[in-house]
Amino acid sequence: MDVIHLKYPHQLKTTEGPYSLAIGFFDGIHRGHQAVIQSAINTARAKNLKSAVMTFDPHPSIVLGGRNEKVFYITPLQQKIDTLKTLEVDTVFVVSFTSDFAKLSPEDFIQYFIRDLNIKHVTAGFDFSFGAFGKGNMTLMNELSKGDFDVTVVDKLIDSDEKISSTRIRKSLQEGDMEDARELLGRAYEVPGIVVHGDKRGRTLGFPTANVQQMDDCFIPATGVYAVKILVQNEWLDGVCNVGYKPTFNNPDDKQLSIEVHIFNYDKNIYGEEVRVGWYRRIRSEKKFNGIDELIAQIEKDKKAAIDYLKELS
After folding, report:
1. What region does 129 belong to: left with phi over 0, alpha with psi -120 to 50, or beta?
2. Mean per-residue pLDDT, 170-186
3. pTM attached to this predicted model
């Protein structure tokens, strides 16, 4: 899969393509996004075109909304690219969402980012907008095509009488409802990270943990204990994870969030390894225990609950 980064005004001179393009921000690449992308792939196969996806970075709200707070993504850019690779897309265009780009008229957007890229078919969701102030919609896209490219609009995908959306998935993550998030995404929610040194307290309790420092801008689920899988050296391993502030040991004012995964039947040194944590079910909320014995007893229960649940999935 080719990944092409573009910034307006781009100087891309290519004879690649022609393309069937799926276009959108696609944070999460959830089932609704997958329907748009798969439609573009199907069109590519039917019309002997290359399949492509166009996404944007950073999130438009950073430029358009003047936000000062950090934006947390369901799929940060590299994770989004990795996920698109699994969908067997030929090319990904990553467009830098800058102030100048945001000022483009719908007509100029189509010229520079559709016609000039040799795109012959555009597929997007019903609510996709483009051009300055979001003035362009898919009806206008079709009108401005002037027969140079075809347009397909994919309707919203409904689950439990409600539209599948990135906003809805974030709400599930905030509530720790990983089963709902997994249903909407079509896969387990994953957080990439690197294993770093922690306080090594888990080892003294008989439950050694991998302390995972998440990659920047990842959306972390609600604090609590979870049944998880962790990708280590290309192998998915079962485990139980605590995400939170370790109130039994830490000062209540200490707000250093930690992600600690106890991997079942595993004692390998993996410091420095890049990993991915897949979240499957929230077992309980985080709580403060009265002593070490009470904590150990609860961890045993959590571990059994995670083993039993993950066994059901296999």
Report:
1. beta
2. 96
3. 0.89
